[in-house]
Structures are given as structure tokens and as C-alpha cells.
Amino acid sequence: MPYREAWSLQSRLNEGVRNGTEQETILIVEHAPVYTLGFHADAGNMLLDEQRLRAIGAECIRIERGGDVTFHGPGQVVAYPIISLPNHHLGVKQYVSVLEEAVIETIAEWGLTGERIEGKTGVWVKGYSGVYRKICAIGIKVRRGVTMHGLALNVSTDLRWFGNINPCGFSSDSVTSMMESTGDGGGVMLSDVKRVLAERLKNLLYRN
């Protein structure tokens, strides 16, 4: 789904959940290549100008979520839960922790150990050299208690896209994917990851 289309859908669902005209929804999508800048993002972390972005078939959009600059594209599972935090007795920090836990449980199905790093939102895995690399970025927006935006899990993403940015303020060599981290090019299927992630999100958000 094109990013702007998904953004518009999120906004409509967010308003509907707030007004009671829409049910809570978890959107699971995959985007065409796009870079997004959070509202406090440093534009200097976007390393290409608009002309060069068009030349490689991508665009850059500034949006209202938290976080810095990140990439969305093929091979990446993006989840946008549109839920009422008060209905789930969750604060913002608790909600972010739920998103992280859903990813940690998901990638564990493929033998990967996801970890949190103090002061760095998202999920990280330790590489063979002992260096932690980011496998999932998280950036959210809460409007009157209802969430939008969410998480982006690199499954089979071409990591060269991250070379055009300092992702989330970190250098491109700090990013990885499930396929790269498992070393198994054929054992990680995007459709399977989508299914497992959706299940984990539903279980964690609706367990009560």
C-alpha cells in the first residue's frame, strides 16, 4: 500500500475510534520505498535531496509521529495498531513496550533473540561480532488516547536503502533484517512473519 494512502486510512480510523464509529484495527502493510521523518527529526539524517530520491524511485515525507528518520519498503512488515489506550489500561510507555514485546516474540519463532536497549526505542539483535543492530523501528502518535503509526520490522528488506539515511539517528551499519540475522535466505517468509506478528499483537493487546 502506498504510504500516503495508509497514512490517510490511519487518520480516518483514528478519528472513528475516538468518535465510536470505527472498531479498533491493526493494519499490517508493506510499502513502496519511502523515507519518513518524525516531527522532531533532524533533516540532516536524510542524506539525499528530493531530486536524487526521485531518481531511485523513493520519496521523503515528514509526518506527525515521534522518532527520527526511517525507511519503509519491500520486504518489511509494518504494523499500525489503531487502538484506544485507556480501553487497554495502557500508558504511552507501556504501549511502546507492548509493541517491542510483540516483535521480540515474533522473531523468536525464527530463533532470534530480540532485545531492548536503554534509551533506544525499538528492538535490537546481537550480531556475530557482538555488536547490536536494529531490526525493528518504532514511532507512534497518540491523539486523544487513540494510537496511530507503529512499528516496522525488517524481514527481507534490502538494507542498502538504509545507506541513504542515518536511520533513527544511527549509522546505516547498525541496521539488520531477519533474513540477514538468521543467515537463512529461504527460511524467512514475509507472509509467515505477518501472520505471527498479527497474532502476537492481538494476544498482547487483548489478553485481558
Structural features, described:
There is one protein chain. This protein has 208 residues and is an alpha+beta fold. The protein has one domain (3-205): BirA Bifunctional Protein, domain 2. The chain is built from 5 helices and 9 strands; from the N terminus they run αββαβββαββββαα. The chain has helices spanning 3-19, 50-55, 92-108, 178-182, 190-205, and strands spanning 25-29, 34-37, 60-62, 69-72, 76-82, 115-117, 120-126, 132-143, 146-154. The strands form 2 sheets. A 6-stranded antiparallel sheet has the order 1-5-9-8-7-6, sandwiched between helices. It has a 3-stranded mixed sheet with strand order 3-2-4, with no helix packed on it. Strand 8 and strand 9 (146-154) form a beta hairpin. The radius of gyration is 16 Å and the shape is globular. The chain starts with a helix and ends with a helix.
